Structures are given as C-alpha cells and as structure tokens.
Amino acid sequence: MRLYIAEKPSMARELATCLKNPQNGNGYIKTSGGIVTWLVGHVLQQVEPDAYDPKYKKWRLEDLPIVPKRWKLEVTPSTVNQFNIVKGLIAKADEIIHAGDPDREGQLLVDEVLDFVGNKKPVKRILLNALDETSILRANADLRDNAEFFNLKQSALARSRADWLIGMNLSRAYTLAARRLGHKDLVLPIGRVKTPTLALVVRREREITNFKPVDFFNIRTMFTHANGNFAAQFKPSMKMLKLPAFDSEGRLIDKKFAEELVKRFSTAPLDGKITSYKTTEKKESQPLPFSLSSLQVAAGKAFGYTPQQVLEAAQSLYEKKLTTYPRSDCEYLPTTQFGDAQRILRNLTRLNNDSLKNLFVHANAAIKSRAWNDKKISAHHAIIPTQKPLNMPLPAVELNVYNLIAKNYAVQFYPLHVYDETVVEVKYKNEKFTARGKVVKQAGWREFYIAPKVKADDETEALLPQMMTGDDVKQKQSALKQGTTKPPVRFTSSSLVQGMKDIHKYVKNPDAKKQLKDVYGIGTEATRATIIDDLIQREFLRVVKKNLYPTEKAYLLIDALPDEMTYPDETAIWEDKLHSMSEGDGTLENFLAGQVAFTSKLCAAAIKAKFALAEGVFPCPKCGAALVKRKGKNGDFWGCSAYPKCQTMFEDDKGKPDFDSKIRSARLIKEGAPICPKCGAALVKRKGKNGDFWGCSAYPKCRTTFDDKNGKPDFDGKKFFRGSSFDGKDDFNPAEFAPMISSADFK
Fold it and tell me: Is residue 277 among the annotated active site residues?
C-alpha cells in the first residue's frame, strides 16, 4: 500500500482528487493511486521544562539554563485522534510519500511524525508547489527520495530547538529579574527573532523622538553652452567638506558660507569648462515575481493590507488552485515551467480588469526574463498564477492580491527598460559641478510600472544639450536652494516585514553588515507576519493609523536586555547558518552547542539586568532590587527580593520600609513609647505565636524583646536578647527569613 501524508486536509483532498476515484474514510481518503491521509500542521510539540524534571515547574534563576540531554516531543492534545489514525496507516503501509509543504517546516512536521513512530518503511518526497491538477500530476511523476531532504529537516530541527532554548530560558531569566524589581504580574516572552524585531521598532521610535531637523543648502548653477542651457549641482571638494560649514553627512549647513559661495559663483570671470561628458546605455530588468515577503510589502504599499491579511489571502488563493505555494522565500522560476506561460497569459487576458488588460494582451510569451533560473530554485519557487483560469468571484483582498501576483508575472514577458544616462562635469572657479539626464530609448515593462519620483540632486528632467569634453561654458545664474532633514518614517507591519528581510541594514557590527547583506533575513516567510501579530497581541506594539508604536512594556524589555539579544547581528548569523545547514553545510550538534553557550551567557547577564523599578516600589539601597513586605516572627518587615544574595532588611513603618529607624524611634518615644534598655530605641508592641510581646524598633540590628504585661513591657520578668548586630553571618539566622521569601514568591 502506498500512503501519502499531506500537511493539511485541504492539500490531501486536492491530491486525492488527482489520484482518481476518491472515497472518504475516517481521517483518510482511498484512491486508485493509494491512501491519502493528513496532519493538522504540527501534531507533535516540544514538551514543557517540567516534563524533563518536575522541579522546573517553579521558575528559579538557579535552575537556568535548562538544556535537555535528550529532546522530547508529545502529541498535541487537539490532534490525538488524527495522529493515531496516521500512526495506524503508517504501520500498514508498504511505501510512504511525504507530502508536506515544500519548505523547512513542511519537511519537519511529517518527518518528525515518521521518526516519532519509529518508521522503517521507504519514504519518497512529492513537492507540491501548486494544487492545480497539472502541477500535482507533474510532481507525482517526479517523486524524489526523502533522504535528499535530510539537511532541510536538520535545519528545521535546529531552528525549533534553538527557539525552545532561548524562549524557555531567557523568558524565565528576565521575567524573574523584572519581578525582583517589583513588576509582579509581568511575563516577558523573549524570542530569537521576536525580540530583535521589537527592538527595531523601539529604536526607530527613539530616533523619531530625538530627531532635530537641520537646515541644509544646495547650490544650483545654470550654465550656457553653444547648444543650450543646463543646470548643474555644486559638488564640494574633499578638502572643503572638512570645513565646519559641512556636517558629517556632507551637507552644507552654514547659510552664510553658502551665500558667500553663491556670491563668488555669480561674479566675473564667468568662464567654465566641460571636464567630462559621458553617455551610457542603461538596461533595467523586469521586477522579479513575488516571494511572500515581497508580496506582503507590495500589498501593504498598494492597499494598506497587513502581512497577515496578505498571507491569508495568498493561502486561500493557493487552496483555490489559482496561485502557487504562498510561503515561498524564492523570487525565481524553474525553466521547466516556461512552457506554461502561453496558457497562463491567455487566461489572464480574460480577467475583468481594464487597468491590466493591455498588460496581459500585449505580453510576449517568447520573452524569457532573468526570473527563469534553475540555480536559484530550492524546494519551491516564486508565487505565480497557475494554469487554472479565474472564473469565480473573489473577496476584495484576494482579488487585489491575485492581480498583484498576475501583474508581476506578466511583466516577465516584456522587453527590458532601456535608457541613455548622460553625466556632465563642469569645472568653474576651480570647483566641480555635475548634471545628469536620462533619455528613454525603450519603455519596455516600465510602461506598466511607474518609476518612483526619486531624483539625484544633480538630475534634471530637461534634455541636456549635446556637448564634448573641453567645451566652454559660461555661468548664467547661481541660486541657493534650502532643504530640511526629515525624521525617519515609522514602521508599518509591511515595512517591518521588509526590515526583517533586509536585516543587514540594522546590524550593529560593520563587519557583520557586509557578511549578512545576502542572507535571507530573520524569521521565515511563514513566520514574520505571525511574529509581528504576536507582538501586537501581547501589547508590546500598538497600531495607530497603520503605524507601529512601542508600548511601555517594549521599552522596559529592550532597555533591560543586553545588545546581543536586541540587535539582530546574532540572529541574522544564525539564520544564515540555518540556511547553510539546509544545503548540507554545518551540523545540528554544532549549531545547538552555540545556542547553549549563548543562552548560558545571557541567563547569567539577567542578574544584572537594569529594569526600571515598578511604580510604587521601594528600591534596596544596597543592590537596587525591590524591597518586599513580609511577615516575620517579630511583626512586619521589608526584605530585599534578591535574597539570599542580598540580605538587607528594614522594619516596617506604616506600610513603608523604615529607612531611618532613629527618626522613627524618636517619634515613637515622643509619643510615649517605652525605651529599649539595650540600645535606647523605642519598643513596639507585636503579636507573636505565644501572644503579645514587645520588640525593639531598631530590629534587626537590635533584637531585644520583652513579654507583655498588662499592655506594657515586662521589664522585671523574663527578658531575652537575640543579638544586636546584623553585620555578620553569625548575627543573622537565615532560617527565620527563608520561609518568608523564596523563588516561589516570584513565579
């Protein structure tokens, strides 16, 4: 018996339909080509720490880091029934076809089930990049040995275990650290990708808050040539840029100096010379088809959709067989699918879309863009329309997303955008001026994609006159143009996805910045939207008119964590290693050893985490941790939450720590309190296990006590002293304090 294991029910149904004669069973479908069953995403999950040792149920800093010696999985409670069905079918099968999604997670979630049940049967892999009949039959005719994807599974396993190590350990370590400073109910979920992503938003908001606009000045000069006039931009020399009139970005910020330059450029002699005149033909390639991230960014810009909305729409289009696999990080296409273009384009011409009709009608299926590149293909390819025509009504979001996908596919079949760029350099008054202009020779695909209006300072929309190097020019007019720097733009959900993808722009280490320029970013195509949504749901981010703002909790967390966790350098390097591992470079063991070392280091650093004290909390004057009110044998007192490392204690004074017992004692004596014969402080009446008694208000420095006799200290009866110093260990009995404060108090 051949058994197909799909990742989800919808995929199983489409697969079964193509295998002919489907007959529904309990948790499976019989077909002429074998039995098709399904999982429901990950039916197995990593166990909680207390499954390794019951003591981990309590959160204690001394137990960290928790590192499993043998990793354990358990069946997700909600999927037990389907898991048992799949397990039974595996036992009966002669051959198994792994039909998980064609990516890292899809590979793992079927493989982990096969490993969990101890499967020894032969396993093959079907790569379903689309669910239309043609694509499924083509994939089924090209089954591969599942062993070829071992490295992909190892990469997914490494990612899963690393997330557990960092999430479980650092979340506990820094939550405990925060609670020691009075944040009683706060839980800080720390993640390998989630935390540096949150830090991007926090830093951007601070850049905006601290931004101070700066005025700067550009000098535009009009020159006259025998063949016409043209404007050029003043370019200061390296020597001039060192003057205080220029800032570190090379901007001219001194208005008086700028006006003096304009005056100098406007006085005779006015003769200048062309020192360079070059025209170069430039060719601009078609934009590549979409990966999920680039689709999310495009839909965010065009329609304001969130990344999660786009993912859900793309998933629905995939399940309706209209587009290919949505969770793709690839923007290229296999050459084997080039022959499908004519039919796909023909289907697109039938769309009821006037704005795109010309694009689809005039596309030339013979043109082969750079998108067709087998070397860039892994388990999946870019998101494109399938050969199934759109002949059903779609919700607005799905229709708009489909049109974006169709547009980026169709422009692959248009010529390159070709233009001539001319760059002119002028020497005038021993200074350099530049001008550049463009002449479009072939609109090509740009006919349907308007170029963003971003021009260089020296770029002109007017045609430059024909000139030659060595030609004479004359200055006609020089003018000062003032500009003002603008603050950075706040992240939206879609631009944050782009930031996660282009993470090299945000790393701290300049060497790492170069190394990580070509990495796949942090997170995966499938998880980036979920991570951002989770930060919003947990109230670390809030959305105001599509812009993301950090909350107070976000500042609290990011400010307390070390740079290694808040900057994306380490995470981006790990993602690069995970990608390399999927291609056979690196081992699971070595990767996890690095994660354990990193986790251990940051758990140790949690002790010194600089959280802001919670509102209304009293700091320990010795170590800065929160003081906690407790009940002791001699009444209420305040003890340091960092006990036993810090054993500072204070008497309670009407609900507050008695930081100055002398002042309090004097007040009590003035009010008529009896005086301690040992140290001279006031005695205070307390309730004890054996009834009322009197204790010294200078406790714990003075531990003098007296029995109560008719509401007064019994000076003539039994008196007992339990030490009068708290300076050394011999004078302090930890057994009295330990029951009052323990790690359980901070869980």
Answer: no
